[in-house]
Amino acid sequence: MIDKLQNNDRMLMTLFTLMVLAGPILLAPFGAGYPDLLQRFCIFGIFAIGFNILFGLTGYLSFGHAAFLGVGSYSAVWMFKLLTMNVIPALILAVVIAGLFSLLIGFISLRRSGIYFSILTLAFAQMSFSLAYSVLTPITNGETGLQLTLNDPRILDGANTTGSLPSTNFFGLTMNSTAKFDFLGMVLQFNVGFYFCAVMLILAFYLAMRIFRSPFGLMLKAIKTNQNRLNYTGVNTRPYTLAAFVISGMYAGLAGGLMACTDPLAGAERMQWTASGEVVLMTILGGAGTLLGPVLGAGFIKYFENIFSKINDNVLHSWFSFLPDGLEDLIVWVLHFFVGKGWHLTLGLLFMMVVIFLPGGLLQGASHIIDWIRGKKQSSSTQISNPNSMPAE
Amino acid sequence: MSKQLTRRGVLKSGAVVGAGLAMPTIFTSPAAAYTNEPKGGTVTLGFNVPQSGPYADEGADELRAFKLAVEHLNGGGDGGMMKTFSSKELKGNGILGKKVKYVTGDTQTKSDAARASAKSMIEKDGAVMISGGSSSGVAIAVQGLCQEAGVIFMAGLTHSNDTTGKDKKANGFRHFFNAQMSAAALAPVLEKKYGKDRKAYHLTADYTWGWSQQASIAAATEAKGWKTVNNVLTPLATTDFSSYVAPVLNSGADILVLNHYGGNMINSLTSAVQFGLRGKQVNGKDFEIVVPLYSRLMARGAGKNVKGIFGSTNWHWSLSDAGSKAFVKSFGEKYGFPPSQAAHTCYVQTLLYADACERAKTFNPCGVAEALEGFKFDGLGNGPTEYRKEDHQCFKDVLVVKGKENPTSQFDVLEVVEVTPRAQVEYKPDHTMFKGGSLGKCNPGA
Fold this sequence. Notes:
A: two-stranded antiparallel sheet; 68% helix; B: Rossmann fold; seven-stranded mixed β-sheet; 17 strands; 40% helix
């Protein structure tokens, strides 16, 4: 049984690795094969995986995770400004600072659970946002965002004589260098920054998988199922929840650091509550408590944000130009509200449908489809296994 | 023997495959001399404007102007300012014979979102030039991105000193005027109107533009004998300014300077008027409000509250030179109302870019930058204008305007009080408000 699970994990891991590494090829036909979006897929995938370790395993719903992302970004950019343009020190500092920050916030917020915990984290995140936006302007550069300048010290890099800003690099490999290939009428773009983020995503995914399968992960799941019972049996749950909170904060810090690596600017907006809400959406949309779900959700939302929002009336007209004029105008008029600036509406409707019909997220939808293809055998067996686990709840 | 042969075969085929994989990189990398070199019959420009947030009105008007400019460049419409422009390179056949296409994006008035949007334009859509903005914070962020990516940035509406001051970039160009010029033009008029002994209270939008405008206005008015009582920073996303306006009357100030723009200014001015500031007497003088940066869109939004309030503007549709007239005519015919100053600067920037490409005979950012540096032109609505080589800032006359007492229509809300000549608003590139940055070298990317 364990062997089979291990095998499954190995297969999942291999499949995941291949899919991520082939991203530029697989996504090019959907118009999403350009570096900026691919990097975003990876970065927000990491962010959502980390969030899922807290929310999916312990059930603690944090509404303030964007704060750790922002802190990670600021630390990374400061490292670029002061020390070196190499991404490694920046990422290390981003993860460490985000970890310390989440330790502080987690220590206070985890004294409460449920809605009170959510409100506390939200309050802390909004506080960090306001601080970054105005009070801490000397450190964060306020609304303009923290940016690199020509006369930053960059102690390890030596004097800059080129007259242009240096780019972030991984031991000489610049993050923004891209190899382009023409392939079947599409341009495939293989970008260093993307592959760096992709490797990070794969590592983050592997680590999350180990946590899910470990006794520690089991304990977190127990906390989600019934924290009172654990307390009555004499288990102190606080260290476990705090550890989960800090781990997910460090994931967020890593994601923030990577954002700064691919584009060395840190703005306060990425700490706002909307950004915190976005990662909750990603996780629930993809499937909270599953391994693959959050990555899927992150990709889905970023795709909508970047591709769906660019579809304007002209594009719609060109799609439906084969229809008679009156009908074409009608369809374009109706769809107009769901694409372009209205992409939030489409996303909202989709989110509602997922929550109502597929509480397990897109991943549940996918497994339904697979079950349906394989016939009823599998679905009946899962139904038998479910009642067995029910009494334990 | 056969084993050895196979091993050699494997090595050989490996080498061949390796070379095959490397081939496209060898050929593709140097093939483009600069980022997004247009290869087909079209060239793509990226228009990145705020479609949501406090500057959405300005953004919408900018987008209209960009569309009009593209139409004119491609030979559509009546040609607008192309006929009055002193440079006659533009023939209405696109740019360098390539048809102009454009992509648009929403900056959301946030630097992060603006950079993401500009990045997707450059990486996905292959834009060779990015224009737009309606917030200096965003403009500076996007200008930095364009410098790194190796495309030209033609700044739209951005009024902060920093855009061509400490954050100036070799690939970035600004046609719009700046806070320092506003201050230089406005201070003498304010002195004449309100006297030397005045106490000013500043409400300032809390970002680069607000800071630099406040600094410039305070410096210029203090030189005329005014005192600055207080400066309160307000977050950009503020919509209710009553808590900021309430303390003004008790501060002993008799002038309120609103360093706000767009929706911010509409709300803060309305708030100030509702608190009855304008009817009050302080220190034996009438209480007055000044809005250093004005736009017609804002004036319309604030309604009759703007009557008699002084400010400065880059351009106004009521100007009677041939260029302004031609632009107002073609904009009005297409959209049914006159353009704002934001629309004007974006339209002009697009034409200037196209013209520079024609003169440089290339889209290469370094060639275009060279063509723009030190370029003197006329006929684009502001009289004789020069792109200064040292900081990529345009120098031209500045308009001091006042909210009209008896507007004849909803568009006729501002009247031009004075046209301040270029010599009076010009400053040295190393002026204290601008020092600290350097242009660096132009970056063609690729």
